[in-house]
Design a protein that fits this description.
The chain is of the alpha/beta class and about 400 residues long. Helices cover about 40% and strands about 15% of the residues.
């Protein structure tokens, strides 16, 4: 059984991806009030995620989910036909292959549906700490397209970050999926929509987070959040952030280094809002440098003012103030005009490189991070360092 801290589940998934894990993981997390939550299940094929949910689906269960999602009135008939045609009635893959041949939907349609479900499950559990139990004997044969692929962590993380930007647009009313909505009882009688009145009475009791409610009623929490913002504006409910400090976002944590800085090693500040990327950088250079971490531009500026930094690793794409703007800002400060700034980005194009150079970057690397390229660049700009 593997343990993970707040916002660190992605690192575990990345490790499973690197190892090409095939099987099922049972992810158990603690809620913000310390209550053990119902386990979520992630299935893997060759290290790629193929499904996420509260349980493993049978071919019939997934068929009905897809039929409901795509509003297919002939789904029951198609399912009966599939029961007669497929050789292995335990194989989800064979059922889906038949449906795509019947042109009920395409592989891309199925991918989009399942990928969204995986994103919603991970968005819900990533802010918590918990455990992962591996079971390589429980293999589900669900995969997509002719090459039977799944989804990499990098693909899922990209979707989650895009949704984070939308969540941030709802702040300060709703800061995250973990806020707890409360009904304003005095306003209950003023609600003229019977559905809203019943929904608030049934689900908003001060015990469930927004994510909990969305999960139980099968709605996208972002869509529900937009509705709740309207209800708040109408004076029907209010919000309270989680009280448990164990779930504090990484961006708000103390950025003091985890170990006493060695005077014999150069100090590098890595600025990236992805915990997975930060973990990878730790693995590559953590033993060769004093490595400090920041997840946003404001925290990075605080560290720069507090510590003597020899080199800055800077992600281009971050919420609020991006890497390009931060680079331009520090170049206007005399103390940092000669500081080596290595920009990291998932975008590989000449236009982005030019923008980085105009902002004042010293060098440019693309993600995913290549171990040897990163070490070579650091050795170039921080010479006389013994590399492992």
């Amino acid at each position: 059984m593997l343990q993970f801290n707040v916002e660190q589940l992605g690192s575990t998934i990345l490790t499973l991806q690197d190892e090409g894990f095939c099987g099922v993981t049972y992810v158990e997390t603690l809620s913000d009030i310390g209550k053990l939550r119902r386990p979520r299940i992630l299935s893997f094929s060759n290290g790629e995620i193929t499904y996420a949910g509260l349980s493993l689906p049978s071919p019939h269960e997934l068929s009905r989910k897809l039929g409901d999602h795509f509003n297919l009135q002939i789904m029951d008939a198609a399912l009966q036909l599939a029961d007669k045609k497929v050789k292995n009635q335990a194989s989800i893959r064979q059922y889906l292959e038949l449906y795509t041949r019947l042109e009920l939907f395409s592989w891309q349609d199925v991918e989009t549906f399942v990928r969204k479900q995986i994103v919603l499950i991970l968005e819900e559990i990533l802010p918590h700490r918990g455990t992962v139990k591996l079971d390589d004997s429980a293999v589900i044969d669900l995969a997509y397209g002719e090459n039977a692929h799944g989804f990499t962590w990098q693909q899922i993380e990209t979707d989650i970050h895009q949704r984070k930007r939308v969540w941030s647009s709802l702040s300060p009313a709703i800061a995250s999926i973990n806020v707890i909505p409360y009904r304003i009882k005095e306003a209950q009688q003023k609600i003229n929509d019977s559905w809203v009145q019943q929904h608030l009475h049934q689900w908003v009791n001060g015990q469930r987070t927004l994510g909990d409610i969305a999960s139980e009623i099968g709605r996208d929490p972002l869509e529900l959040a937009h509705s709740y913002v309207h209800y708040m504006q109408m004076g029907w409910l209010t919000f309270q952030p989680p009280q448990n400090t164990h779930s504090a976002p990484i961006a708000h944590r103390d950025l003091a280094p985890e170990k006493i800085l060695s005077q014999n090693l150069p100090t590098i500040l890595s600025v990236d809002d992805s915990p997975v990327v930060q973990t990878m950088i730790k693995r590559i250079i953590g033993n060769d440098y004093n490595l400090l971490l920041a997840s946003n531009a404001m925290d990075a500026l605080n560290v720069l003012n507090r510590e003597d930094i020899d080199l800055l690793l800077l992600d281009v794409t971050m919420p609020d103030i991006d890497g390009l703007e931060l680079c331009r800002t520090i170049r206007n400060i005399n103390k940092f005009r000669d500081l080596p700034v290595i920009m990291l980005t998932a975008k590989d194009g000449m236009f982005n490189k030019i923008k980085g150079q105009m902002a004042g970057s010293t060098h440019y690397l693309t993600k995913p991070i290549d171990r040897q390229k990163l070490k070579a660049v650091l050795d170039k700009y921080i010479p006389n360092t013994v590399m492992s």
